[in-house]
């Protein structure tokens, strides 16, 4: 009796793709006769046929679809052939083999250097891939902020420090202001002088004023126009602006790269639900797992994935069976809920605008020697941050409550709640900046006539905006720690040790993925906006997210319970990155306005000799040779932009047509696979 393992070999010969390949290679026979003999001889003959037709290329023995005996014979044959090669060819093959082995070992070792690798894998096994995706997302932001900090420190902060302390025999070059009124160059930071109380340092640390205002943390510290080291001249204003563009471009490209990977997973999953089940059931297990704990974690991970798929299919079936009356009731309820959401957003925006105007007008009224007045001044300075945090806290609670009545799938609930909460949080930052700009550009009674901005209230407005971003970052971190210490852990103790019905009704809180993702996206948007005004803010964000990882891990393990409705990691990862990309694109708007539209401060910063921060670019281009100037200005003109746009449109249409052709091919291949599955004899 013939073994069953021989059947697929004959079957492969009958596939249309195999016959087509033989025709393309010039084969005269469209169909070869069936191979006779035993299963082993038929398998060997089939492999020889594949090798003759080019289907089985000359590749390493371990990669061949053969049994172990055939692999050993192939290896011995390859080694025997190597003995007859020339020395150069033999050395080339040996070197290539050694290099591949070394790269494989380095890749294996590098996996142990991945940050929080064991912690995230443990979380995945205990709580599912949806929650694991949040911690992986947090790890990505830690790495991103660390690289942004390296960029800003290397190209902006380090050259300034080197020049100020004369390291490497460096000198400082200052350019005298031209056509600038002397009244615009007056800037006296409120540094601490004389006897200073401890609480003053604490207040300065929280608000970014006092001793922090004159450090490299803020924009006003960078007064140098150029750094001269030997014969090299380092243009600090140009480096400052280009580094800003570099960290924004790096963030954009990195997020796009990770989003495309997530989009591929979503595309594969959504294409065929049956294929998703097959992948998990038949190909989801990792046979390299030998540790019982790791195996248990993998079991739980697969269980959560299958549970999520089944839950979503059940909800889709329920939605498909709705009657017309149910649909009308649900749609009416959704319209009403969206009206409520718009009203809440409008109230938040108006409150933030009024509070910011009040804070900016009254924060400078203080008596330094009166402790009570200093405390009141600190509260006034933090008033916008507190109102924004309050809106960010109340808004998501209301959105999470009302979305339960809209009857969406769990994945779509997270997406819609995230979009609403992201909009309220990011729009709150936008309203804050709009309020600041309205005060900076408030030119009533000719306040802006000498300098182009309100120089009396904001002699160095970039540092003031940096302080607001710094306060938002610090206050957000304090709120996250306070919620963990004074809300989550006391609730856990009460539910565990108190038998009151009202306490048990609250119960253990679930780990809300949308709220937690929203927290870090909100903080990251603040970091992107604030880095231009506070170059070392990414370092604070890196430390903040590093601590938050362990805080959230402890809170998750000891105070939270797994979600009642599991969330799929693939869709979550992709959507988290899309929301993060929205935050980055929104960060472009205030940065673009600050760089290109608002006049730069004439009393501080590297751009004090330019009308705007962007003016350093054309000023640098004017120093280039005439031919290069004409090329660059030509690329920035409409004569270049219109043909470039037309070419881009042609390329886009070509890619769309190619994509449609690929989809048709994929559909044909899928039909062939269905045919193979339904009629294996054919």
From TrEMBL:
<feature type="region of interest" description="Disordered">
    <location>
        <begin position="1"/>
        <end position="83"/>
    </location>
</feature>
<dbReference type="InterPro" id="IPR012496">
    <property type="entry name" value="TMC_dom"/>
</dbReference>
<feature type="compositionally biased region" description="Low complexity">
    <location>
        <begin position="34"/>
        <end position="48"/>
    </location>
</feature>
<dbReference type="InterPro" id="IPR038900">
    <property type="entry name" value="TMC"/>
</dbReference>
<keyword id="KW-0812">Transmembrane</keyword>
<keyword id="KW-1133">Transmembrane helix</keyword>
<feature type="compositionally biased region" description="Basic and acidic residues">
    <location>
        <begin position="49"/>
        <end position="83"/>
    </location>
</feature>
<dbReference type="GO" id="GO:0005886">
    <property type="term" value="C:plasma membrane"/>
</dbReference>
<feature type="transmembrane region" description="Helical">
    <location>
        <begin position="469"/>
        <end position="487"/>
    </location>
</feature>
<comment type="similarity">
    <text>Belongs to the TMC family.</text>
</comment>
<feature type="transmembrane region" description="Helical">
    <location>
        <begin position="211"/>
        <end position="232"/>
    </location>
</feature>
<feature type="transmembrane region" description="Helical">
    <location>
        <begin position="331"/>
        <end position="353"/>
    </location>
</feature>
<protein>
    <recommendedName>
        <fullName>Transmembrane channel-like protein</fullName>
    </recommendedName>
</protein>
<feature type="transmembrane region" description="Helical">
    <location>
        <begin position="574"/>
        <end position="593"/>
    </location>
</feature>
<feature type="transmembrane region" description="Helical">
    <location>
        <begin position="137"/>
        <end position="158"/>
    </location>
</feature>
<dbReference type="Pfam" id="PF07810">
    <property type="entry name" value="TMC"/>
</dbReference>
<feature type="transmembrane region" description="Helical">
    <location>
        <begin position="631"/>
        <end position="656"/>
    </location>
</feature>
<dbReference type="GO" id="GO:0008381">
    <property type="term" value="F:mechanosensitive monoatomic ion channel activity"/>
</dbReference>
<feature type="transmembrane region" description="Helical">
    <location>
        <begin position="382"/>
        <end position="405"/>
    </location>
</feature>
<keyword id="KW-0472">Membrane</keyword>
<feature type="domain" description="TMC">
    <location>
        <begin position="460"/>
        <end position="570"/>
    </location>
</feature>
<feature type="transmembrane region" description="Helical">
    <location>
        <begin position="238"/>
        <end position="256"/>
    </location>
</feature>
<feature type="transmembrane region" description="Helical">
    <location>
        <begin position="417"/>
        <end position="437"/>
    </location>
</feature>
């Amino acid at each position: 009796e013939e073994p069953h393992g021989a059947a697929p070999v004959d079957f492969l010969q009958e596939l249309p793709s195999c016959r087509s390949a033989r025709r393309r290679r010039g084969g005269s026979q469209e169909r070869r006769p069936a191979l006779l003999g035993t299963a082993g001889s038929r398998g060997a003959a089939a492999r020889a046929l594949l090798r003759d037709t080019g289907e089985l290329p000359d590749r390493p023995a371990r990669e061949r679809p053969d049994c172990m005996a055939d692999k050993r014979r192939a290896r011995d044959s390859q080694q025997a052939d190597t003995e007859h090669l020339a020395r150069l060819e033999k050395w080339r093959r040996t070197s290539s083999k050694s290099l591949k082995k070394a790269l494989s070992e380095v890749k294996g070792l590098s996996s142990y250097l991945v940050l929080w690798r064991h912690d995230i894998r443990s979380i995945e096994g205990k709580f599912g891939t949806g929650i694991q995706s949040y911690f992986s997302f947090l790890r990505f932001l830690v790495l991103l902020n660390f690289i942004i900090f390296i960029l800003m420190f290397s190209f902006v902060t380090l050259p300034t420090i080197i020049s100020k302390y004369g390291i490497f025999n460096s000198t400082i070059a200052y350019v005298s202001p031209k056509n600038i009124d002397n009244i615009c160059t007056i800037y006296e930071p409120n540094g601490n002088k004389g006897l200073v109380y401890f609480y003053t340092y604490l207040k300065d640390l929280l608000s970014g004023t006092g001793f922090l205002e004159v450090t490299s943390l803020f924009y006003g510290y960078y007064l140098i126009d150029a750094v001269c080291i030997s014969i090299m001249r380092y243009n600090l204003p140009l480096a400052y602006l280009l580094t800003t563009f570099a960290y924004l471009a790096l963030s954009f490209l990195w997020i796009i790269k990770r989003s495309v990977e997530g989009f591929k997973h979503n595309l594969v999953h959504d294409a065929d639900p049956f294929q998703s089940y097959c992948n998990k059931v038949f190909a989801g297990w990792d046979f390299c797992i030998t540790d019982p704990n790791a195996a248990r974690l993998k079991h739980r991970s697969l269980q959560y994935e299958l549970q999520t798929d089944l839950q979503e299919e059940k909800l889709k079936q329920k939605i498909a069976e709705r009657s017309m009356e149910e649909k009308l009731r649900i749609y009416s309820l959704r319209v009403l809920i969206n009206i409520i959401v718009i009203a809440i957003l409008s109230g938040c925006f108006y409150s933030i605008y009024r509070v910011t105007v009040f804070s900016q007008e009254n924060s400078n009224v203080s008596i330094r020697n009166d402790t009570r007045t200093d405390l009141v001044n600190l509260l006034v300075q933090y008033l916008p941050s507190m109102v924004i945090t309050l809106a960010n806290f109340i808004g998501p609670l209301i959105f999470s409550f009302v979305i339960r009545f809209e009857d969406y799938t769990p994945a779509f609930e997270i997406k819609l709640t995230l979009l609403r909460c992201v909009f309220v949080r990011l729009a709150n930052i936008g309203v804050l900046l709009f309020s600041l700009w309205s005060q900076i550009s408030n030119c009533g009674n000719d306040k802006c006539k000498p300098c182009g901005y309100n120089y009396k209230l904001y002699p160095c407005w970039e540092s003031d905006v940096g302080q607001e971003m710094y306060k938002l970052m610090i206050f957000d971190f304090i709120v996250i720690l306070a919620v963990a210490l004074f809300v989550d852990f006391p609730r856990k103790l009460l539910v565990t040790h108190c038998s009151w019905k009202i306490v048990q009704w609250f119960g253990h809180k679930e780990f809300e993925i949308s709220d937690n993702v929203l927290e870090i996206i909100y903080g990251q948007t603040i970091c992107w906006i604030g880095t231009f005004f506070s170059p070392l803010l990414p370092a604070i964000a890196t430390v903040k997210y590093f601590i938050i990882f362990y805080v959230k891990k402890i809170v998750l393990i000891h105070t939270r319970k797994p979600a009642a409705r599991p969330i799929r990691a693939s869709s979550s990862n992709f959507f988290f990155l899309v929301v993060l990309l929205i935050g980055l694109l929104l960060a472009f708007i205030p940065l673009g306005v600050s760089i290109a539209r608002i006049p730069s401060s004439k009393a501080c910063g590297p751009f004090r000799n330019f009308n705007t921060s962007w003016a350093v670019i054309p000023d640098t281009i004017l120093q280039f040779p005439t031919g290069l100037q004409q090329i660059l200005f030509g690329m920035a003109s409409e004569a270049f932009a219109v043909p470039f746009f037309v070419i881009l449109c042609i390329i886009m249409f070509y890619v769309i047509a190619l994509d449609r052709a690929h989809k048709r091919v994929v559909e044909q291949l899928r039909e062939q696979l269905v045919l193979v599955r339904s009629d294996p004899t054919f």
